Amino acid sequence: MSNRFIPLEPMQPRERIGVYVCHCGSNIAGTVDVAEVRDWAEKRLAHRGVVVARDYKFMCSSLGQELIAKDIKEQGLTRVVVAACSPHLHEQTFRKACQMAGLNPYLCELVSIREQVSWVHTDKHAATDKAKAILSGGVERVMRHTPLEPLHVPIHPATLVVGGGIAGIQAALEIADAGFPVYLVEREPSIGGHMAQFDKTFPTLDCAACILTPRMVSAGNHPNITLLTWSEVTRVDGYVGNFTVTIRKKARYVKEELCTGCGVCQEKCPKRVVDEQYEAGLGFRKACYIPFPQAVPKYPVIDTENCVFFAKGTCKACQKFCPTNAIDYDQKDEYLSVQVGNIILATGYDLFDARRVSQYGYGRLANVFTSLEFERLSNSAGPTNGNIVLRDGVTTPKTVGIIHCVGSRDRNFNNYCSAICCMQSLKFAHLVKERTGATVYNFYIDIRTTAKAYDEFYQRVLEEGTLFVRGKVAEVTDAARKPGEEGKIIIQVEDTLVGKQRRIPVDMVILANGLEPRRDAKEVAKIFGISCSADGWLIEKHPKLDPVATMTEGIYIAGCATGPKDIPSTVAQGAAAAASVLGRIQQGEIALEPVRASVLEERCSGCRICNNLCPFNAITFHEDRMVTSINAALCQGCGTCVAACPAGAITGTAFSNEQIIGQIEGLLMRNLETAPVGAGQA
Amino acid sequence: MSAYLYYPGCSMEASALAYHESLMAICEPLGLNLDEIEDWNCCGATEYVGVSTTPAYALICRNLALAKEQAKGTDTVVAPCSACYLNLAKANYYMRERPSLGEKVNAALAAGGLHYEPDSLIIRHLLDVIINDIGLDTVKSKVVRPLTGLRVAPYLGCMVPRPDYQKRWSDHEHPNELDRLLRALGAQVIDFPLKTHCCGGHMTQIGPATAFELIRRLIASAQQHQADLMATVCPMCQMNIDAYQAETNRHFRTNYRMPILFFTQLMGLAFGLDPKRLGFGREFVNAQPALSRIGVEVPTNEAEQKPPRIPGRRDKNLPMPRMPGEEEN
Amino acid sequence: MSDTFEPVIIGFTCNWCSYRAADLAGTARVKYPPNVRLIRLMCSGRLDPTFVLHALANGADAVMITGCHPGECHYIEQNYKALRRFLLLRRTLAGMGIEPQRVQLVWASAAEGARLAEEIARIVEEVRALGPLHWPTSTDLYGKPFSEEEAFSVTKETSAPAEVNA
Questions:
Q1: I need a labelling partner for A188 at 20 to 30 A (CA). Which of A17, A276, A308, C92 fits?
Q2: Which of these three, A516, A549, A564, is where a domain ends?
Q3: CB pairs below 8 Å between A and B: how many?
Q4: Is A95 within a domain?
C-alpha cells in the first residue's frame, strides 16, 4: 500500500527543547496523568529535539521558574514548552523566566492543558491523550519560533476617564494630583453619578452629598482635569499609549464661557417635567435645568424634547432673563478629538427595573417604591424635603415592608447577588424607624453584611426593633382577604424560620432592586474593544489578580461597571485603576507583542490582493517598484493579509505559516512518524 | 382567513355552552376559521394526569395525533378551554422532554393506528390567537357598540399563563393580554390583582370550604375594585365563580352578586351581534343589571337561580332596611 | 477505549474571542468532549484555507473555525473575510467529496464559554455520525497503519524506525 501522506522531512533536531508539565496542584494533575505526559514527551518527542521533560507542582512558582532557568543554563536549551494554564494567564511569567536565563522570551511556548483539558474533561485517559497532543503541537510550533524583540511604544501622558461617578472622580483626581492631564467624560449634565442621589451612606450614615461634593468640586476645578459633561465617547482609534478618542460634546444651548450658573433661566423656565434621571421619577425639573444644586459644572442644559421654544418656536424665557446672555439656541453638537495614552472606564450600573417582577406590584400599586425612589424620598434635598411619606405626598406610613433581593439571586432575572442591597435595606430600615417611628419589616433570603463595620450596623438595626422575616416574598397585593387588610398593601411571604405562610399588611413597600449592567454596556465595550460577560458586566483581566485591567492593553475598568460594588470598593477600584495608569505613564513607554506582518518584497508579485484587506491602512502599494509594503507601526497583527497572499510573500511574526502548519502536524501526531536522521545510531 | 385546528373540549358542549355559542358567533367577524378535530376525546381535565400518567398522556395525545392527521396547511391547534390548552401543551412538552414517556404513549396510540411526534403541532390558547394573530387593530375595527363605562375585572385563572411552555404570554403573574383585549372593546378594565389566582378548580367537589374561600377572594377583590362584572377565558373559572357563588355566599354569609362572562360574549356584544347568539341567559348570576349600565339588553335566565335565602342555624341577624333606590334583586 | 469512533478535530480560535471563550469554559468547568484540539490565531482572518486542507490531509476528521461574532471583530471586520473564505472553502471541499459538516464555522464571543462548549459537543456528534475521514488513510511513513493508540503510548521505542537507516 502506497503512502498517501507526504512524509514530513526527517530532520536532525536543530533545537534543544525543554518540556515542562505543570500539575497546578491538583487542577491539572487531578485529571491528566502528568507523569505519563512527561515520560511520553521525553521518549516519543526526543527525535524532535526534546532533551529534557519535567513535571512540577506549580510551574509558575519561583521554584518552577528556577527549574526552567537552570535547564536553560545547564542543558543549553534553545526552546521551552510549558504545558500549564492559558497563555492569557501566564505567558508573560514564563517568557520572563526564559529571558532571565538568557533565552529570547519569544522562544518559549505556553500550551494550555488546564483550561482546555483538565477543567473541561472528565475521562482521565482521554484527557491525558489530549494533553499529549497539545504538547506535541507546542513542540512542533516552538521549534519554528524565531527570536523577536518587543515593539516599544511611547505612552502619551494624558488619560481618558469615562464616567463621572465616584469611581471616575476618584481615578481622575488621583492622576491629576500626580501631575498628569485627564479628560473626564460624563454623559449627564453633571458629574456625581448615583452617589449624588443618595441621602446617607452605610454604615456610618454620613451624608452622601457632604462627602461627595468636595470631590466633585475638586474635579471641576482641577487644573489638570478637562471636564467634559453632557458628552459621550463615540470612537476610539489606536492602541495602548496612543489612543485617539472622538468625543461628542452634546449641545447644551448654554455658552459655558458666559454662564455664571446663577440659575435664573431654570427659575423662569415655564415647562416643568418629571425628572426621571436625578429624582428617579419622583420629582420635577424644568426644561432648562441644572440637575441638582451642587452640580458640577454649574451650567444648565436645555432639554430640547421638552423645551417650549424647541417645540413651538416661542417662549425664549431663559434667553430673555439670562443676565449674561449665555443662552444660545443655535449651538450644535461638537466633536472633539483627543490623544490619550490610557483609558479608564467607570461607567457604573443601571438599577434593575422592578416592573419586571410583576408580582411585587411596582408601577401598579402606588405605595410600592424602588430603592432609588426611597433614596430621593429620604433625601433632605429631595422632592419631599426628606419626609418619608406615601405617594400621596402627605401620609406618613405606619408600617413599612422592605423586600430584599428584587431581581437578584433569582433564576428568573439575575443569578448574582447585587452586594449592596442588604446594607442599603438596613439603612432604609434605620431611616424609616428614626424619622417616622413606623414598624419596619425586612424580608430577606440571607443577610450579607461582610465588610468593615457592616455587621455591627446590622446588630444596631436589630436592636432598634426592626423585624426580620426570612423568606422570599411571593406577592405584594392590594387584594384584601381578611379584616384589617383593607386599604393596605399585603405582603404574602413564607416565613421559613417559623415554617408558615404569612400575610403582613403594610402601608409602604420598598423594593431593594438589584444592580444591572448599563443598558448600553455592550456598545460601550465594543467602542473600547473590550468584552462583557454574558450578564453584561465588563470583564477584568483577572478576577482576583488583575481586577482593574482588561484584556485590551491600555484600557482599565473601575467601579460598578465590572459588577455590583459598595462605595468603598468602588473608590478603591478608581484609585487602583489610576495607580495602574500612573505606573504606565511613569515608564514612558510600553513593550508590545511583536506580532506584525511584513512583506518579502522579492516575492511580492504586486497583485494587490492584500491591498484592500487592512482595516488599519497599514498596507501601501508602491507604484514605482510594483510591490506592496506594510507599515509596522500601523499593523495590528491580525494576519488577514498573510492568509490572503497567494505568493506567500507576507509573513506574520509569531504566527507564521510554518509555525501553524507545524502545530497542526504536532496536534495530529504526524511528527511521531518522522525519523530523525541517524536515529538508528542513537 | 386564518385557519386553525380546533379542539373544543367537553366543557364547550355542556357547562360552557355560552362560550361555545359566543365563540362561533365572533368567528365570522374576526375571520377566524376553526377546523374542529374529528372524533376528539376528553383531555382528562385536571385530574387524570394525577391519577395515572401514561394513560392520561395517551388520552391527550390521541387528540394531537388526530389533529396532525387532519392538519391541512396549519400546525396550530387552538383550545378555548384553559385546562384543555394546558393539557395539550403539557403532553407535547413532556413527550419531548421525556422520550421514554413518548415511546409509551406512542405505543398506546399505535393500537389505534395513530402516532404523534412531539413539537409537530403548536398548541395555543384562543386568547393568544386573537391577540397575536388576529390583532387588536382588527378587533378594534369590528367594534360597533363599545362597552364604554363597563368596569370589567379581567380574570385569566391559573392555567393559561403558567407554565407557559412556549413563552407566549407577556408575564406569568400579571399578563396584560386580556386587559388589552377588553380595553380594545371599550371597556374600563380594572387592575385586577388576582387575575391569575386559582378559582379552586375541582376543589368544589372534594374540599368545598377551600374552594369557597378561593372563590370569595376573587369576588371580594373584584367587588372592592368596583367591577361591574368579571370576564374570563376559562370554563372552569366561569363555572366556579358563577355556579358556586350562591353557595359561597351561604358559606360566608355574604351577598355577592358578581356576574362572570366569557370574554367572547363581551366581544360579541361589542361587535353588535345579537345577544341571543351569544349564550346570554345561561349564567346563574344575572349579568343584566351590569349590562344595563351600558344600555344593553340581553336574554336573562327566566328561572334565574336566586334561591330563597335559607337562614342558617346561627343566623340571628335582623333583616336590613332597604334603602331608597336600591336595586331590586 | 470503547468501540465508538472518536473523531479528531482541529479547532482554529481567535485570540480575542473564541480562545477566551475556551478559557472561560475552563474556568467555569463546563464539560465538553475531548476531541477538539485548538490552535490559537490572532484573528479568524489569519486562517489560511490551506491550514484546513493541511489538517484534513494529515489525519483530522474535521476542522472547526471560530471567530468573533459579525461586527465584533477585534480587528474591525476581518472575521467577515474569514466568513468569505470559509464559504468558498466549503464549496471547494464539497467538490472534492468532503461533507460540509467537516468544516464548520462558529461565532463565539469571549463571554460565550458555555456556548462554545455546546457547539463543540454538537460538532463532535455530527462528525462522529459521519465517521472517519478517509481522505488519505492514516498510515505512518512506512505504510503501516498508524493508530491513535500507538501514537499516545509511552512505551514505543524512539528507535523503532531504525531499519530505514540500517
A1: A308
A2: A516
A3: 26
A4: yes
CATH class of the region B2-126: mainly alpha
Tell the residue number behind the cell numbers 449592596, with chain if given: A420
If we measure between CA atoms, which residue out of A366, A334, A321 comes closest to residue A252? Answer: A334
Q: Quick one: what percent of chain A has pLDDT higher than 90?
A: 78
Contacts of C25 in chain A (CB under 8 A): 115, 119-120
Residues 6+ apart with CB under 8 A from B125: B78, B79, B80, B82, B85, B160, B168, B233
* Contact in structure between B93 and B143 (CB atoms under 8 Å): no
Task: State pLDDT tens for residues B122-152.
Answer: 999 999 999 999 999 999 999 999 999 999 9
Which strand (E) or helix (H) includes residue A275? strand A272-275
Written in H, E and C, the secondary structure of A158-170 is: CEEEECCCHHHHH
If phi > 0 it is left, if psi is from -120 to 50 it is alpha, else beta; for residue A113 that is: alpha
Q: Is residue A375 in a domain? A: yes
Q: What is the CATH number of domain B139-292?
A: 3.40.50.11810
- Whole-structure pTM over 0.90, yes or no? no
Q: Which of C23, C48, C165 sits opposite A643 (nearest CB)?
A: C48
Contact A479 B191 (CB under 8 A): no
Rounded to the nearest angstrom, the minimum Cα separation between A491 and chain B is 13
In this structure, is the dihedral angle defined by the CA atoms of residues A198, A204, A206 and A211, taken in order, positive or negative? negative
Residue B53: per-residue pLDDT: 87
| C-beta atoms of A478 and B194 within 8 A | no
The number of distinct structural domains making up chain A is: 3
CATH class of C9-137: alpha beta
| pLDDT (0 to 100) of residue B183 | 95
Cell numbers of A146, please? 524565531
- Stated length of chain C: 166
What ipTM was estimated for this complex? 0.89
Give the pLDDT confidence of A371-380 residue by residue, as tens digits.
999 999 999 8
Total count of residues recorded for chain A? 682
Give CA A186 to chain center in angstroms: 17
Three-state DSSP string of B53-101? HHHHHHHHHHHHHHHHHHCCCCCEEEECCHHHHHHHHHHHHHHHHCHHH
Q: How far apart are CA B297 and CA B328, in angstroms?
A: 17
What would the pLDDT profile of A574-588 be if each residue is shown by its tens digit? 999 999 999 999 999
The domains of chain C are located at: 9-137
User: What are the sequence ranges of the domains in chain B?
Assistant: 2-126, 139-292
A484, part of any domain: yes
CATH number at residue A59: 3.40.50
Among the partner-chain residues A358, A475, A480, the one whose CB lies closest to the CB of B171 is A358
| DSSP type of residue C76 | B
CB of A155 closer than 8 Å to CB of A588: yes
Domain range enclosing A500: 350-516
Pairing state between β B122-125 and B188-189: unpaired
Contacts of B18 (CB under 8 A, 6+ apart): B261, B262, B265, B278, B279, B280, B282, B283
